[in-house]
Amino acid sequence: MLRSALLFLSSQPQIFKFVRHNRVAKSFANRFVAGETLDTALAAVARLNARGITASLDLLGESVHNEAEARAAGQEYETMLDRIHERKANANVSVKLTAMGLDISEDLCVAIMHKILQRARDYESFVRIDMESSEYTQRTLDLFEQRLYPAYRENVGIVLQSYLYRTFADVQHADLLKARVRICKGAYKEPETVAYPEKKDVDSNYVKCTQELMLKGNYPGIATHDEAIIKEAKRFAKVNEIARDRFEFQMLYGVRRDLQDRLVREGYRMRVYVPFGTQWYPYLMRRLAERPANVAFLTGNIVKEMVGRRRP
After folding, report:
1. CATH code that applies to domain 34-276
2. Is 182 a catalytic residue?
3. Where are the domains of the chain?
4. One of 180, 182, 256, 287 is an active-site residue; which one?
5. Cβ of 256: how many Cβ atoms within 10 Å?
6. From the candidates 58, 130, 170, 203, which is the catalytic residue?
7. Strands 91-95 and 180-184: what pairing?
8. Which of 111, 112, 176, 196 has the highest local Cβ count within 10 Å?
9. pTM score above 0.85
10. For residue range 20-33, what is the model confidence (pLDDT) as tens digits?
11. pLDDT in tens, 196-237
12. Is 175 in the active site?
């Protein structure tokens, strides 16, 4: 019921119009979204960099409806890379293929991605291709491996999601390719035919995939806010003599900032994903709707962070 309500609210433009100008609502959103413009996002990146944290910029918005929208989204990413380079910011970018026209034409999507990746190569930067729902998994991996990675091996990586049954095999294949992988748990609502329904199984597979990536992968991104999993990754790295510069932890903007700072103090690499754009309201509502438990999760983590900051 809560999920349905959140999804309904995410699609109501009149509510967005109210929320967008509501001080309390916008204040809550600003914790997890770095404003509506590239300037506000770059300011957030500067603050992260000052704390010893790298960033990945993510322009909000998913599937586009026509070629003009797809090309405009691609141009936005080229501009993002230009501005990152101009400011000498320690950041890269994160891209959804549906925002680049994948649902319109694969050839169009590839053409737009090649322009983005060429710009990234010019600046010796990096582009992470986000993973979307399971209906896109194989298409995304095929496009990545066959049409993007061969020409831009140093400049492009992929995301894999541990809640899918298939993911450990995908991790092993990515390791053979020496492709850079960001491993996350996954937040879309998926059928039990393709994804583990129980959290404990998702977590177990996450640890299994993470360890495989740490042993054999190419600079994996360990994307989690789960302290137990982070502790296990640190233990595994120590036991297997895996240097701290061979992987990085990754978290979402505004979530567990205390834990981000703690990991940096301990000498680990930390990257924060920084979403921004005018579509922040649908993004926030959809993220909560994907797993309604995120409402309690986000609230709980704010409390944890406040308690953590009070400790000496």
Report:
1. 3.20.20.220
2. yes
3. 34-276
4. 182
5. 21
6. 130
7. unpaired
8. 112
9. yes
10. 566 655 666 777 89
11. 999 999 999 999 999 999 999 999 999 999 999 999 999 999
12. no
